[in-house]
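Q: Is it fine to ask for two folds in a single conversation?
A: Yes, each is treated on its own. Send the first.
Q: Here.
A: Result:
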Amino acid sequence: MTATNISASPRPPAARKGQADPAPREPGRGGAFLRRLTDPLGALLIMVVLACLWEGYKALGQAVDDRILGIGLPVATDDLSMPHLWTIAGSLTAPARAGDPTSLAVYLIGETTVTLREALYGLAAGSLLGLALAVLFLHVAPVSKGLMPWLVASQTVPLVAIAPMIVIWGGKAGLPPWAAVTGIAAYLAFFPVTINSLRGLKSPPKVQLDFMRSVGAGRARVLWSLRFPAALPYVFAGLRLAATASVVGAIVGELSAGTGRGIGRAILTSAYYYSNGPEKLYAAVLVAAIAGILFVQVLALLERFALRHRHAR
């Protein structure tokens, strides 16, 4: 018997005399298909509800001149403040610049790929740092007690204050601007990976740890054979949070680094020329949001693949 085969769950009670142990009920194919179908339908339903709220609020404001019972609405509903959704959608097919046949959608997707690449580098660097810190905190308690409060405090500092410093440090070191953006993304990504990985590494029950010690397994063997497999669900939960944070960090980093590329720069340019085309800013934000969602969904697929045998139990 190996350590990886130990089950943390209690053994089922013995079957009564003359009765067989009840077999675990597995979800039918129909139920699994319905669950897979319900998730995208639920997301689509939420999008429809939000679209109706947007257009309904705009129609109400236009009808009452943005005032109800003498109180002004919190957001003006004119076309400059709240373009119609079909106007935003139509801007995606319009040229991105005057005299340029490239559509706004193609331009924004191209800029988004730059941001996602920076976010991916930041996620990889931040995840490796987070895993290393989790292992260090697990085995060296004084370091954990002394360093953990500073890690928590680092996440309370506004990103707009940290980003320029990272850009300046990267420039002094002779690094390209995209490296500073990657560093900002990694700065936001490492913390959720550290916290969730540490929790996962501590999740194996004492009986399993005692068994590993009884067979003479050292710290490294316990770590690779028991703690890491048990921590995988926690690690992926941290990675999903880190993926969202890395995209946000990359976008904010592009605003400070002056890379000239990326969806962050596209959003800043659209904001600068907002009065000439407010729908372009909303379109850029929409594309950035969709890119972030897809980025996280890719990690969710990787999690499902990595934990497919565990989910099948």
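Q: Second one now.
A: Result:
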Amino acid sequence: MTRANAKRNRAAGRGSPATPVVPRQAAPVAEETKRELVFLVADKGMEAMIGAFFGRPDFHHKLSCAPFDFNPKTDIVRAGGHDPGLVKKEAGLILNRRRHEFRRAIVVVDHAYDNPLDSDRIRERISAQLDGTWEQFAVIVIEPELENWFWVDYPDLVKKVLLWTAKGGDRTPREVLAEAGLWQAGADKPLDPKKAVEYLYENGYSRDMLNGIFKRLALALPSVRGCTDESFRLLMATLAEWFPATDGRAVTTHASTYAVDNMEQTEHTQ
């Protein structure tokens, strides 16, 4: 039989039975080649802060977890569509195709955007996109947004990273914001963390309100033991569970409250 006749017979369904086509199996991925953790973040500010903090050689001391290899250049993915897209479907589309590269994943999003969902519902929607693909993942929803992580109880450091101007003088950002009605007496954070940063910049008290403030803060922050933000404490608790410290230091969780134990000891034993 000529090649032409064979081709016509196959097209007409005649001739010798065709050899069954066996689906190609994906090559098994060696677990030891995977990187430990990937962050999926919504914007450049998150990328700057997380990249700078986890790029520090002492980040595990700050978080009371065991050290693990982390490269800010490869282990952070920034979404192009920001928070709404991640909640709808983009978190799964972006991360699930990277499962062969990483063992664990953390998604970080702001809550303060135009949506009717509360934080729990946002976590549920994003988790549903990852469940079944990732064995270990976490969804961190910042209330209301990333600037809430910025306002730490280190006034001189905050002034430094804001590039404080002569107009502010010896006053702290908290004092200036209190005078403007943007920080209530006794509160840990400004009423609107993002608006507070913008106010200081727009009124000449600081020379930066962009991503540089997050990077500078993350690089210089001496401790996180006083952090009161629930989303950050969830991040700490998650990492302590995935990468438990071997010297007895631990971060414990109780329902929706994330309590940090022995943090003072952690900071003094660096």
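Q: Anything structural to flag on that second result?
A: Two points. Residues 1-26, 250-270 have pLDDT under 50 and may be disordered. Residues 57 and 239 are 16 Å apart (CA to CA).
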